[in-house]
Write a structure and sequence with these properties.
alpha/beta; Rossmann fold; seven-stranded mixed beta sheet; 10 helices
């Protein structure tokens, strides 16, 4: 992380993509320990994919936004003869994935500009990556690199993430404290208009509970999910944090302080 100088966080001035890459690079070492929501959503996507009646096995599959390679284990087991390509734009995450999957092709690139020719893959998988990008661009790139009839399996986030944090930080300042994600219905409509055959569309809350606000925020930071559109360049003061904690405590449940992810799962076939 860029070191603060006189209380100023210089990383706040970086372009959004570069800040996101930096955040995930910093989280790579402990990511697998902290990423229980990511694992749950990947496992659910795999379960949905198993339930579909997809056509022949793909010759090649892309794991777009592979992270440390958790999903790749299941993909390699499910389609052992297929070529598996792992792609992410955070080098430190890819280094972990490369160690865990020495037989896979590993590429550092942006999923909004995939470095492949048209119709390269029979399957496209992406778990919790589209929310950091423009989902419409992601869908367009998936359509380009998939062969006709190829399958798309995506788990991402909708627009209603972390309502508890929005409540806690409300009125604190003019900066963003929760990532803004476009409503997934927009790109779902685009996909259907373009001829995608939707096999699975599911949207539901994925919740966790924490003993205090600090633990909840640490859980978000530990998986690199701390970047927002307008990041505050200087730390909040003690009185601001006291007010944030007090507002968060208003939401306490028997299990602890809730933190809600707006989970979205999509499986479709390309026209």
């Amino acid at each position: 992380m860029t070191a603060p100088i006189s209380g100023l966080d210089l990383s706040a001035a970086l372009p959004a993509k570069q800040r996101i890459r930096q955040a995930f690079d910093q989280a790579a070492t402990g990511y697998d320990t902290a990423a229980d929501v990511q694992r749950e959503m990947s496992d659910q996507l795999a379960a949905y994919l198993r339930q579909t009646d997809l056509a022949a096995d793909p010759d090649a599959m892309l794991d777009a936004g592979c992270g440390t390679g958790y999903s790749a284990r299941w993909l390699a087991q499910r389609w052992p003869r297929a070529e598996l390509v792992l792609l992410d734009f955070a080098p430190a995450m890819l280094a972990v994935a490369r160690r865990q999957h020495p037989g896979a092709k590993v590429i550092c690139a942006d999923i909004e500009a995939l470095p492949f020719g048209d119709h390269r893959f029979g399957g496209y998988w992406s778990n919790l990556t589209w929310q950091w990008n423009d989902p419409r661009r992601c869908l367009a790139e998936a359509a380009r690199v998939l062969e006709p009839g190829g399958w798309l399996a995506v788990a991402t986030l909708g627009a209603d993430n972390f309502p508890e944090l929005r409540h806690a930080f409300a009125g604190t300042d003019a900066y963003s404290h929760v990532l803004a994600v476009p409503p997934p219905e927009r790109w779902l409509t685009d996909g259907r208009a373009a001829g995608w055959q939707v096999r699975v569309w599911e949207r539901r809350a994925v919740r966790r509970h924490y003993p205090d606000a600090r633990s909840a925020l640490r859980s978000v930071k530990a998986v690199g999910a701390r970047e927002v559109e307008q990041r505050r360049p200087t730390p909040l003061g003690r009185s601001a944090w006291q007010a944030i904690n007090a507002r968060y405590e208003q939401l306490r449940e028997a299990a602890g302080l809730p933190l809600t992810y707006d989970g979205v799962w999509l499986i479709a076939t390309r026209p």
